[in-house]
Amino acid sequence: MPGYFEIGKITNTHGLKGELRVYPTTDEPERFSRLKEVDVRIKGHARTYEIESVRYHKQFVILKLSGINDATAAEALKTAVIVIPDRLALPLEEDQYFIRDLIGLTVFTEDGEELGELIRVLPTGANDVYVIKTNDKELLIPAIKQCIRKVDIAAGKIIVHLLEGLRELP
């Protein structure tokens, strides 16, 4: 969704007063506390809501949006995605990239061999893993400095060093 970043998914209602249980899809769930409004997108429709309150419970963000005042209204937003405009994105540090900018890049080895297209990024505890669609299978490459040599979003490519055994993994 160009122009917007997804920061959460509404998974359920919370209580009877219109609160929403949101699973954060951002690295920094605390960002909800710094926002004044969010866009909620469901079934091809979008609407901007002011945020009335934010609190945190376990791995969820409990969000109260203006105009959503009971469980029935909240129920209508289940499965919706919460997005913010690009201008509200958190700044990236060196060697950090937005996943949406990486998807679709062509991956090459240091020797110039084209491996395929980056189709998914899997978050893990230690580091992300890039899923590369090759001609006959998916190749998993850890997003670590030893493997990812260069990311050039403008050129649409990633240069990687394949550690021994990575190509042979199922």
3D architecture notes:
The chain has 170 residues and is mainly beta. It has 2 domains: 85 residues, Beta Barrel (Elongation Factor Tu (Ef-tu), domain 3), CATH 2.40.30.60; 62 residues, SH3 type barrels (Roll), CATH 2.30.30. Helix content is 5%, strand content 46%. It has 2 helices and 12 strands. A 6-stranded antiparallel barrel has the order 1-2-5-4-3-6. A 6-stranded mixed sheet has the order 10-9-8-7-12-11, with no helix packed on it. The radius of gyration is 19 Å and the shape is elongated. The two termini are 32 Å apart. The relative contact order is 0.15. The mean pLDDT is 91.
Properties at a glance:
170 residues, mainly beta, Elongation Factor Tu (Ef-tu), domain 3, SH3 type barrels, six-stranded antiparallel barrel, 46% strand
Sheet bearing the most strands, described? 6 strands, antiparallel, barrel
Task: Assign a percent range to the helix content.
Answer: under 10%
Q: What is the H/E string?
A: EEEEEHEHEEEEEE
Distance between the termini: 32 Å
**Assigned CATH architecture of the largest domain:** Beta Barrel
What's the tally of helices?
Answer: 2
Average pLDDT, rounded to a whole number, is: 91
Shape: elongated
| Structural class by SSE content | mainly beta
Strand fraction equals: over 45%
Number of domains: 2
Could you tell me the radius of gyration in angstroms?
19 Å
CATH fold label of the largest domain: Elongation Factor Tu (Ef-tu), domain 3
User: Low-confidence stretches at least 5 residues in length (pLDDT < 50)?
Assistant: none
The CATH superfamily of the largest domain is identified as RimM
Biggest sheet: strand arrangement = 1-2-5-4-3-6
What is the number of strand segments?
A: 12
CATH class of the largest domain: Mainly Beta
